[in-house]
Write a structure and sequence with these properties.
By secondary structure, the chain is of the alpha/beta class. About 35% of the residues lie in helices and about 30% in strands.
Length: about 325
């Protein structure tokens, strides 16, 4: 890569300041050229923290900056569509936080806008860039746990007392399925290697939290009788696990989506006995931004193109429909 990718940060959310911005600054492929917020004091504080020269008090100014190659969008979910399209129209590549949109139709509009402008669009599921994902997929494909039969995923935390949190704004795309349920859904699609056929989801919608889904449990049906059972929530004890079950064994990942230096390992119980795989404790956010920059530079094809985000959005939307209607939703 001849020149580092020049990033603009469209918003000062916690995920940006605490994870993605440090990852960009520590990477060999990118540099943060500007940060923007609707509150200029927040933008200046973030810029000062990371030694960034430019801070803007509007997202429009960021999009107009000719020195920005790519934009990272950590805004509330309902703003993803607007600012992804505006970034694309300004000729900026886009890394957008998950979920990509509120509906599959919005996701399609975003993908089409980026394609028209010839810019790269990626959904920020950092866990998929951790090398252990490749290890897990290799073990599943090797037959060590036999034929794949089922998956079980969970991602829950308890933040219900923070009533002002944006996760509890239904019109902003709040709720546990959007916030954390999207992780086990994307993981199942990745590991099974095909799209699901139907979903059935039961959820707890809380009047205390603007009637968003505070807890959801579901069944995602794939062909050949394979299924994902999952639960996600924002009013439950913290868990982030993934289990992959085969005819002759299983893989258990105790820290499936958020990993640190000491908890990236996973268990394999298969035909050759049981073992702990000590996966490297790498920074998945940095791997994510490095992968993005390599795609932009033309050095590789996207591992997860925009179409993948659209397919995950279709599944997520079906889960929400199932929970609200209390019925099974078919996808094919």
């Amino acid at each position: 890569m001849k020149r580092k990718l020049r990033w603009g940060i469209a918003g000062c959310a916690g995920i940006a300041v605490n994870a993605v911005m440090p990852a960009i600054q520590s990477s060999e492929t990118g540099v943060i050229a500007a940060v923007a917020s609707r509150d200029i004091s927040k933008a200046k504080a973030a810029a000062d923290k990371f030694g960034i020269d430019r801070a803007y008090g509007s997202y429009e100014e960021l999009m107009e900056d000719p020195d920005i190659d790519a934009v990272y969008i950590p805004l509330p979910n309902h703003l993803h569509r607007e600012w992804t399209i505006r970034a694309a129209e300004a000729g900026k590549h886009v890394l957008c936080e998950k979920p990509l949109a509120l509906t599959a139709r919005e996701a399609a509009e975003m993908a089409e806008a980026c394609a028209r402008s010839g810019v790269h669009l990626a959904e920020a599921f950092m866990y998929r860039h951790h090398p252990r994902i490749g290890q897990i997929r290799h073990i599943v494909g090797s037959g060590e746990i036999g034929s794949l039969r089922a998956l079980n995923g969970a991602f829950t935390f308890n933040n219900a007392s923070d009533a002002a949190n944006i996760r509890y704004r239904s019109d902003w795309g709040g709720g546990s399925l959007y916030d954390v349920g999207c992780y086990p859904l994307s993981a199942a699609r990745l590991i099974v290697g095909r799209e699901p056929e139907a979903v059935t989801v039961h959820a707890m919608f809380s009047p205390e939290h603007d009637n968003v889904d505070m807890m959801a449990s579901g069944l995602v049906e794939f062909s050949d009788g394979i299924a994902l059972t999952f639960d996600c929530g924002m009013w439950a004890a913290f868990r982030q696990t993934l289990e992959i079950v085969g005819t002759d064994g299983r893989i258990f990942v105790p820290h499936a989506f958020l990993t640190g230096a000491d908890n990236a390992g996973f268990e394999v119980h298969g035909t050759g006995g049981s073992r702990i795989v000590q996966a490297d404790g790498v920074n998945a956010y940095r791997l994510e931004v490095d992968d993005f920059a390599s795609v932009v530079a033309g050095e590789k094809e996207p591992a997860f193109p925009a179409d993948d985000a659209l397919r995950n959005m279709r599944l997520l939307e079906a889960c929400l429909q199932s929970a609200r209607r209390r019925e099974r939703i078919t996808l094919v």
